[in-house]
Amino acid sequence: MKLSDCKAMGIRKSLLPFFLMALMPLAAAAQSDDFGLDFTLEAQKKLSKSWSLGLEGEMRTRDNTKTVDRWSVGLGLDWKVAKWLKASAGYSLLFDNNERITYFDELDDEVLDGDADAGDPKKCAKYWGTRHRFNLSLTFDKKLFGDFRFSLRERWQYTWRPQYTVDERWSYLNNDYDGKPKTYNGKGKSVLRSRLQVEYDKKGLDVTPYINAELFNAWSLQKIRYTAGLDWKLSKQHTLGAFYRYQYVRNDDDDLEPNRHLIGVSYKFKF
Fold this sequence. Notes:
Layout: H1 3-28, E1 34-46, E2 51-62, E3 67-82, E4 85-103, H2 109-112, E5 121-144, E6 148-161, E7 164-166, E8 170-171, E9 176-177, E10 182-184, E11 187-200, E12 207-217, E13 221-233, E14 238-249, E15 260-270
Parallel strand pairs: 1-15
Antiparallel strand pairs: 1-2, 2-3, 3-4, 4-5, 5-6, 5-8, 6-11, 7-10, 8-9, 11-12, 12-13, 13-14, 14-15
């Protein structure tokens, strides 16, 4: 057997745990969950040995890819504090496709009169709205067990949703628009996002596979994201990425997101 064949076999054996762990979220996911696509473009400029600036744009779909869920553009600044520590700050402008549904409760007149049951959908508003998102992050990373790199990112995230008024909402009971304006008050929300990631970072290998799990906490655990993907370094400046993500929503009453599968593609340019 040639030395190159031995090397290739060793790489395949090293990558095997990543593919096995990537199947875990798939096995746990339910078929009734939503499915979407995620497309990301990123440009990164190295300002100095320790500082870099990044610009990112994203488009995401939902409802089994039938609906555009969100557009966003973000600006971020990274500071390499030490070999094992990076600090980051960023801002993103989110343009969301909102679908807000209210439900009948047992004290509504329609329920008391027998025209509707408690829990039935009552009214629906669909509109595009903006959100402003700020974040601060610390990322610790270290190579362990040969070519495996472990990283822990702790991110504080604050999102402000401005006040918005819709002209009317759809009434499920009357099967028509109600003709009445409805104002949704502005709202801010802080979230602590904790992400643990493992990647296979072998010198000389252009493809870097990874897996991670991220917890979203806002006084309680609200959702968990499981991700498995790989980054393919096409050249010194160009990187192409692909990932699968399963998002499990536990108690997120603000975004009202369902459990969701996502397939993502990303492209990064460094200059």
